[in-house]
Amino acid sequence: MTGLTLDDLVQRLRAVLDGPGRAVEAVVLREGWKAALPQLHALRLEVKRLGAWAPHLTPEHGGMGLSLVQFAQVSEVLGRSPIGHWLCNCQAPDIGNMELMHTHADPSLQARWLMPLMHGEIRSCFAMTEPEHAGSNPVWMSTTAVRDADDYVITGHKWFTTGADGAAFTIVMAVTAPDAPPHKRATMIVVPTDTPGFSIVQNIMVMGERGGDHASHAEVRFDAVRVPVTNRIGSEGQGFELAQARLGPGRVHHCMRWIGICERAFDLMCERAVQRELSPGEPLARRDTVQHWVAESRAEIDAARLLVLDAALALETRGPLGAREQISAIKFHTAAVLQRVLDRAIQVHGAMGLTDATPLAFWWAHERGARIYDGPDEVHKQSLGRAILKRYATS
What we know:
Butyryl-CoA Dehydrogenase, subunit A, domain 3, five-stranded antiparallel sheet, single chain, alpha+beta, Butyryl-Coa Dehydrogenase, subunit A, domain 1, Butyryl-CoA Dehydrogenase, subunit A, domain 2
């Protein structure tokens, strides 16, 4: 960070999100992401002027050069608003695609797609999950990329491709070697969304909302989509390995965003508890149950934060393999804390908690998937439990 301390950065972002960001957030909640795009772009320019652009990128690429631990703390602040990460151009799935292409795409792909992505001029998406197969088994997929001279011909069906609506390109996971071992079958390939044969079937209705633009999850098809072999990221058959490398930092990003959501929900819950009266002079805050919810939420949020920061440090110092257990632990633990804190906050708000007067209902609908995406909780618990018990069996 050039001339800007981490505390300065956090305070600047907090001032934007709690100030002009609240009005833009309200438009997103009432009318949807597309309706708010003019205000969002204007606020994004303000964030750039403040020097808070792309905290995860190096200064030479226009970013702030934060470490993963530093970025995790910034991500918490951004998570306080549904628009926070997008304003700083560090939103999923773009941030994961940036990191992936920065380390594994060849220079021509970087020049054509990565540079405008890092500058916020375009968006991207990531097509991996298939409706025909369990997402908890990421090596099981039917989308294929068949080599034809200097091209790949891609055929397949994907869904929950976040942000495909309006994206300039997608990175697709496709099977290139069906007879190889399971973890060596798939390859990552860049597909521009204007390529013939690529189509968005629909923005999927999620919890009663289709969404739009960045805030959407699409069903997409690849019908004999032809792209050059040079659009491959990494080597052939390296897709699963790259996906795992992408997911490590991605889970830290998600978890700290969830902590930010929890903190905003906690503030809203406490404010509501002291202001809402059950009868004259009898606020909700005097109820034992509400006091218990506040105490439990405070302890759970603080514990989850320390767990995630520890995992971020482990990932930085020991790499993905050395931090595997910590990454599994934060994924299921933080997702569960998020669900509990949101539920308590909604309950304290009563009927108001179900409306768009606060972001609580938005988060309840959009973040229930936290316990499913990037590996369901059950898979992470099983993986962590098995690893721990294996040490006892061999000691």
